[in-house]
Amino acid sequence: MPSVIERCPNCYSTNIEVEPEYMRCKSCGNHGNYQIWQLCKKIPIFDAVKEEMLYTVKEQLYKHKDTWYVLAGYTSGCGRVVTGPFCRECRAFLPELTEAKKRRGKASVREDGKAAAAGDG
Q1: Where are the beta strands (DSSP E) in the chain?
Q2: CA 16: distance to chain centroid?
Q3: Which among 23, 28, 54, 98 could disulfide-bond with 34, CB atoms 3.0 to 4.6 Å apart, if both were Cys?
């Protein structure tokens, strides 16, 4: 960030008071040491995954309500001050990271075959 700030990074107003290492915006109330603020530089983009396709997904799964998602990439953010893990103005929601569902694969087929050979299946 520049050593002297001219606009509020949150609302872009010029109605601010700036002191060394401190800024207060009279428009939105944003205040503090602007040199340590984190700004919204990028936000995640997610693609929805159909329930029947979950077993084919190799990426990390995310869930919001009843919909599953995978991370598709990132796009540029708005440049506003970020007060949490992500910018609330850019993201309407952030799906929660979940554990992947069990996938069908060679390991499960072998285990089923062993159980059947032992007379358990």
Answers
A1: 16-19, 22-25, 31-32, 42-49, 61-64, 67-76, 96-97
A2: 31
A3: 23
The answer to whether 75 and 42 have CB atoms below 8 angstroms apart is yes
For residue 116, pLDDT beyond 60: no
Domain range annotation of the chain = 1-37, 41-77+84-101
List, for residues 62-93, the tens digit of each pLDDT value: 888 888 888 888 888 888 888 777 777 777 67
Helix (H, G, I), strand (E, B) or coil at 104: coil
Which long-range CB contacts under 8 A does 9-12 form with residues at least 24 apart? 9/34, 9/37, 9/39, 9/79, 9/80, 9/81, 10/80, 10/81
Instruction: Give burial (CB, 10 Å; 0-12/13-18/19+) of 73.
Output: exposed
Tell me the C-alpha distance between 60 and 46, whole Å. Answer: 11
| pTM, 2 dp | 0.56
